[in-house]
Amino acid sequence: MCGIIGYIGERDVISVLIQGLKRVEYRGYDSAGIALFGPGGLLIKKDKGKVAHLEESVNGQQIESSAGIGHTRWATHGEPNAVNAHPHTDDKNFIVLAHNGIIENYMALREELRQSGHEFTTETDTETVAHLIAEVYDGDLLEAVRRALKLVQGTYGLVVMCADKPDEIVAARLSSPLIIGHGDGENFVASDLAAFVQFTRNVTYMEDGEVALITKNKIVHKTLADKVVPKKIEKISFDIEHIEKGGYSHFMLKEITEQPRTIGDSMRGRLLSEEGTVRLGGMREKEEQFLGAKRAVFVACGTSWHAALVGEYLFEEMAGLPVEVEYASEFRYRSPVLDDKTIVFAISQSGETTDTLAAIQEAKRRVDTVFGICNVVGSSIARTTDAGVYLHAGPEIGVASTKAFTSQIVVLAMLALNLGRHRQISAAEGHRFIKELREIPRKVGTILSQSEKIEEIARQYKDHRNFLYLGRGVNFPVALEGALKLKEISYIHAEGYPAAEMKHGPIALIDDEMPVVFIAIQDGTYEKVLSNIAEVRARRGHVIAIATEGDKDIAKCVDHVFYVPETHPMLSPLLTVIPLQLLAYHVAVMRGCNVDMPRNLAKSVTVE
Ligand code: F6R
Q1: pLDDT tier at 522 (50, 70, 90 boundaries)?
Q2: Which of 15, 149, 165, 488 has the fewest beta carbons under 10 Å from its own?
Q3: What CA–CA distance (Å, rounded) separates 59 from 71?
Q4: Burial (0-12, 13-18, 19+ Cβ within 10 Å), 19
Q5: Which atom of ligand 1 is nearest to the CA of 405?
Q6: pLDDT tens digits for 172-190?
Q7: pTM of this prediction?
Q8: What is the CATH number of domain 3-240?
Q9: For residue 407, how far is its CA from the centre of ligand 1 (angstroms)?
Q10: Which residues surround ligand 1 with Cβ inside 6 Å?
């Protein structure tokens, strides 16, 4: 969602801000802006549209400046236009700020401020905070931000400058991430490491309820209650190539294509072939709770929720542990039944999803330990959970999640194996499972090498308005994921269903205009899936089947077949999802859609 960058130092401020904003573009936004201290005071440039457009409008302007802040906005309050774009100021142009999050009590605050003479120019909740800080300011910016935020209800990642203080940026965080980058005679603040990682890898993470005073040579972290917070600078390992396209036309294609490596990275150093089990360092401290559990609850959103569903099949099949999968957004508004033998796993690529964070808070009220499965190292979810496992899939920039999904399944499979070995699986079985797991990257590679076959299918169906995706067992969540990928990036309506459910309703949709994608691999449900295929064909639906290599018969009863190599049935989603990712990608490209930044979507959903 919205992105923030702040910089103070000797470099060309405009260029640092624009580069930073370009690095956070992938999060999704509809307007962009910057504010800086120019020779004549605070200067603001903002507009609807892309950062490239903003860049054009400042191109060639050599403005000497000591500090600046920039923002990409994903509209919540007020339409995406130049007026509502951040940064925002008070009516005297004295305070300028950029904000991620939502100010819930802005209407009441606005009314009070209006009564004391403030005039508002935008429809945003954020503008209120600029007025509020200006109202309480008496010479100390950090102090004014602290005092103002005590009156604010909501969530914020906030960067603030003041016309009086050309050498200061103040940052504040509550439920919206901010990371500070420590340079030499310069400092950075951003909502996302990618925004400044080319300049420094020394970082401190702001925690909820903290404010920070950032100058060129000094950073002071405090709580809202004015207590200094000592911080340890962490050195992050981050490869800049990972956030660049590296010759691919889209990040999504790059990320689909790098899955043989990312799947391998998720298991690297963790598989113990001899013992037929795994070693997961991040689980060690809470191993007793994990192994002693009687039930598990997985909370997640979107694609991560689909991975959780795959995890449910894995845990139940391999470890005999009952699992419930919850939408994180629903979890805290129910009365979830949790006891000290229930373990909760929060699954998230970004580690910043607000709904998932809120579910973790709710779970923490009821259970001792919440585990995390995250990709982004040091993210809020990684730091809020008590133990867990990183995906090590590298930064995922394309808004549609692909490589994180397969890595989440790998991690869930390793956890299921670990638990299963303690409960019901023999060393020999564990050993066989690991052998299959090790083969997955190569098998994904063979699927990717046939991308043009999927491209051909995409060409035939790109203009259809509806798609149905059907699968059974552990491949039912893959059907959901295939449908989600297609609708997200190509804007074609698509539904995923368990194949047998089709006859309970969706079958009414089937006619010769309806492509139906079946995951029809040779596992325990194969024969049943063939019957479901026959039901679709009888109604003249077009069938695209994802089938097991060597299954010649299926070709006779479908319109198109794409083969994936055979594997352990529980690992099959790691293979069957790849052609579905490619199908969505090719269809979207052929329809001229913005694959990496689909309309209305954000990479990291930091609002409820
Ligand atoms: C789909 C997609 C979203 C995310 C969801 C959760 O391609 O990217 O559905 O999966 O917003 O995000 P994380 O995993 O970051 O919590």
Answers
A1: very high
A2: 15
A3: 17
A4: buried
A5: 10
A6: 999 888 999 999 999 999 9
A7: 0.83
A8: 3.60.20.10
A9: 13
A10: 301-304, 348-350, 353, 356, 400-401, 484, 488, 604-605
